[in-house]
Amino acid sequence: MKRLSILLFVLTLAVQPLVSQVQKRSANAFVLKGVVLEDETNSPVARVNVEIPGGSYTTTNGAGEFAISAEIGDELIVKSDTFETVYYTIKDKQYVTIRVKDASIVEEKLPVTSSSRNETENTFNKLIDSARFYLKKDAKKSIEYVTRSLQSVQAKATSRRHNSIAFETLGDINLFWNQPDLAVDNYKSSIASQSRTDVRIKLGRAFIANNNYQESISLFEKLLKEKLSNYQEVEVYEGLGDTYRAINDQKKSVLNYQQALNIAGKHSITPKITDLNSKIGEAYAKSGAPKEAEQYFDNSLNLAKQENKKRAVVEKNKVADFYNQNRDFDKEIQLRSGLLEELKGLDEESLEDDEAEAISPQRQNYKIANAYVAQDKYEDAIPFLKKSIEEADKKEDLLVQKDATRKLSEVYKGIGDFGKAAENYEKYVEVVDELYVKKEQELSQAARFSREIALKQNRITSLENERVLNESRYKLAFENQELIQKNNRIQKWIIGSLILIAVLLLLTAYYQYKNVRQQKYANNLLALKSLRTQMNPHFIFNALNSVNSFIASNDERTANKYLSDFSQLMRSVLENSEEDFIPLANEIELLKMYTKLEHFRFKDKFEYQFTVDEKINMNEFVIPPMLLQPYVENAVWHGLRYKEEKGKLDIKFESVSEDTVRIIIEDNGIGRSKSKAIKTENQKKQKSKGMGNIQKRIAILNEMYDDKVEVMVENVFENEEGTRVILKLKKD
């Protein structure tokens, strides 16, 4: 009795006005924001189904983010075909991060084989036909026939067609018996073996049943881009319409239903025309457009009458429900009364379970009574409620019997007959108690049924794994035989390939080495040119200092004379500035002009002498321009200039051999040590650009031309005075 009291209390609460519940929910609702991330890669997951049971629905965007209306305590369901479903209880209004784990199934394509015997093929087809016969009658027996069908071809190599048909049938069984998750897996296995449009459409239906709405939309949209039959095109558009209706997008739902209806009408696909008119009516009714809904329901009702009795009564019930929602109770009563008459001549076994339950006499009588009660016609309602209770008792329909008994008690209470009201309420309590027990049994049976279905499914999966293993063994043996036959040919091909690769690598290395050499040569030329261009400003700067000194001492005539000689020298220098090498004779001429200018400035400091060996063939030797000038400049400015008595500068060009010339630049100046000692602080801070550049130029030349120039610097006297620079210049 305690259990009964609790149940009655719950039922009493259930009859409170729905409006107050909605208002309460609206007051407590808030917008929950979050993101769905892949657990291992931490990457966002797009197009994920996010819903609250009985509440809002949304999907994630490209960044994996979502926003949904929710309340604290609601259960958030995050679902997709690519990962395990996540159930999350909302505890607060904070940003939610949902991490999901990949649960995708790796589907291996089966090798193409065929049955070797007609008897095996016939056995397989008979077993599949038996499975389809029992599909809506006995799920366990139907699955058993599918299992036997796979076993019948187990010894032979199962073809893709066999495998596809078996798993398609298994998917049909699971979908009919409300196991959509298993149906999805089975349809996928069927498609993996042999991709067929009909099975892909069924997979879309299974996605809808399993609330994988984004997957169904994606699949149907892909199918629309492929070649479809007229009937298949209607089914795809209808599937899109069903999906959008399930997620409350009535506009897109009607749009897709209308597309399907246009194609069905064009090609006279009559059953679909009736169904689509009915579905468009439902969509309009759900979106709050009763006039449009009534128009399509009238169409569906007229079309259903032309098909068969079964279709007509199912459609009448649907249209009657529509009239009930719009409070047009007279039309509802009229339709249900006609429906009751038609049910008398209808074989109930031809109806599906859900159809038979919806249009059963006990339910129709109950709904007619409800329509009268809604109009406050209690006396008219009583006979229909009694008839409903009577029919429900015969059919053991405790659910309708409970509702009708309670409604009858309320009607008697409404007309003031409290005795009958109490009497029927006691009956109602008895039915509720009986219904409670029955529901517990049904739940237990449903759980057992689900376990048995899962076990049989696992058995088929094991058979499939075993079949794949056998296939792999057979295929491996065959491939091994081929490998043995082709082994020598492959070895020869590999050896030839290795030789060819080796040759290619050698050629590549050679050309790479050559390119590096060429690039290095080009870089050296560029460096030489850069150093050479630096020499000219340095030389000009020093010469202009000399002019400046003459002007400062008011020796204008001497300055003019110096400028005249300097301009002649500059012309020769600039003419040779673009050349990498010039004849040795030109370099000697430039050096003489430069030495003359320096002597002109420091005529009291030194005398100079040029000695050129007549054996030297001037036309055969070339030298980089301005290579010798810095050494002469160094001798004058740092050696001879600081000598107290008059110094001497000797410049000699001697023939060592036919290929080599020795150049000696010798001075009897103060020497390198004393010159370094008397440098000013400012001079110590500055580096000699001329000597630095000349050393770099010689280093690059020797790298490019195999020691073309040798340089040696030494003291002339033991007291470290005087400096001798010896350069050896090779012909090439």
From TrEMBL:
Domain Signal transduction histidine kinase internal region: 528-606
A Pfam family the protein falls into: His_kinase
Keywords (A to Z) from UniProt: Kinase, Membrane, TPR repeat, Transferase, Transmembrane, Transmembrane helix
Organism: Pukyongia salina
TPR repeats: 197-230, 234-267
Record field: transmembrane: 493-511
Highest rank taxon of the organism: Bacteria
GO MF annotations in UniProt: phosphorelay sensor kinase activity
Protein name: Sensor histidine kinase
Keyword Cell division in annotation: no
GO cellular component, one term: membrane
